[in-house]
Structure to design on (325 residues):
């Protein structure tokens, strides 16, 4: 079990915040599949404090996904503090500060990974959010902005000294993108120097890698991003593997339920056409390796009507279950 401040997680596996993916619907699905903690995608502190409707919509949550971490980004301590208060009021159990986003639109405002260049501003933001927040505060960082420094160890120490309850380390420099493998050695170095929990993140695509990251780095928790988009069952698979049991592949009926339940949840929050589009993006992970899966995915590409989509998905899986394809 992993405790972040006063919040106890069921297990030490966390779903990474991912813009465009970690919607309320997806979070509810991976929570059911065994994630110990789910996170919103990054939410603009400026947008929240100016009450932009689209931004405040990101704060919508459901009791079944708890504990929920809401991630905020911004560069002004007071605005970040106000946004953190709003997130807590809306139901966040943890507030996470983004210090890793390398996207130009974000870093040019001094937010996201740009903060890694400025330990003084890191201190001001973490202190302001800490004082404003009644719940635990976490920070997600990278190895640094670039190898020229300052690097994650210095930043992580500042974060701990300012009262944060945990730090997540995605060990790539902001200048690197995904072009190089995550360097897990950074996670171990930071774990050695901090007393708050350290969560490791980066390149967990197989359940065995999560166990290996824990063993090699001593990290307290493992955060999974792209690996869980491609295989949302990975959380359960890590749990079974850590008990020495073989990795269980999802059954056909589990794959069918994942798609249909997820689609149903999406339809509750966005219009059907957008939900259909979103679900198509996730179909690959649920049908990879199944007979005639590429024809199936092509066949539903044009369907926008909810009933027809559900029937087509149902028929495909029924045929597979009856051995008819
Ligand atoms: C499409 C996409 C969206 C992401 N959005 C966010 C985000 O909103 N906040 C954040 O801190 N990191 C974001 N990340 C980074 C991930 O949280 C994670 O740190 C990174 O993907 C490395 O972990 P992985 O190898 O398990 O995917 C995003 C990554 C991807 C690929």
């Amino acid at each position: 079990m992993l405790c972040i401040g006063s919040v106890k997680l069921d297990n030490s596996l966390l779903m990474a915040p991912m813009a465009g993916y970690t919607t309320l619907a997806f979070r509810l699905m991976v929570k059911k599949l065994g994630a110990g903690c789910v996170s919103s995608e990054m939410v603009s502190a400026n947008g929240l404090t100016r009450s932009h409707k689209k931004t405040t919509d990101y704060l919508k949550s459901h009791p079944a996904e708890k504990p929920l971490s809401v991630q905020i980004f911004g560069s002004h301590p007071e605005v970040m503090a106000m946004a953190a208060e709003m997130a807590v009021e809306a139901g966040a159990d943890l507030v996470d500060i983004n210090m890793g986003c390398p996207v130009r639109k974000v870093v040019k405002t001094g937010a996201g990974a740009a903060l890694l260049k400025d330990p003084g501003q890191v201190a001001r933001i973490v202190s302001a959010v800490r004082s404003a927040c009644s719940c635990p505060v976490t920070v997600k960082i990278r190895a640094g902005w670039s190898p020229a420094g300052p690097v994650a160890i210095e930043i992580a120490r500042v974060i701990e000294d300012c009262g944060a309850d945990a730090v997540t380390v995605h060990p790539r420099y902001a200048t690197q993108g995904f072009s190089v493998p995550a360097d897990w050695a950074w996670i171990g170095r930071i774990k050695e120097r901090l007393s708050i929990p350290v969560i490791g993140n980066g390149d967990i695509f197989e359940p065995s890698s999560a166990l290996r990251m824990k063993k090699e780095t001593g990290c307290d928790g493992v955060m999974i991003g792209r690996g869980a988009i491609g295989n949302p069952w990975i959380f359960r698979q890590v749990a079974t593997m850590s008990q020495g049991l073989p990795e269980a592949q999802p059954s056909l009926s589990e794959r069918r339920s994942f798609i249909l339940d997820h689609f149903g949840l999406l339809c509750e929050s966005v219009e059907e056409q957008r939900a259909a589009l979103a679900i198509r993006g996730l179909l690959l992970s649920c049908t990879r390796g199944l007979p005639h899966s590429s024809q199936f995915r092509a066949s539903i590409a044009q369907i926008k009507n909810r009933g027809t989509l559900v029937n087509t998905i149902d028929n495909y899986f029924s045929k597979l279950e009856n051995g008819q394809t």
Remarks:
- The domain at 2-242 is CATH 3.20.20.70 (TIM Barrel).
- The chain has 15 helices and eleven strands.
- The pocket of flavin mononucleotide is lined by residues 16-20, 41-42, 71, 98, 100-101, 140, 170, 201-204, 224-227 (CB under 6 Å).
- The chain has two domains: 2-242, 252-321.
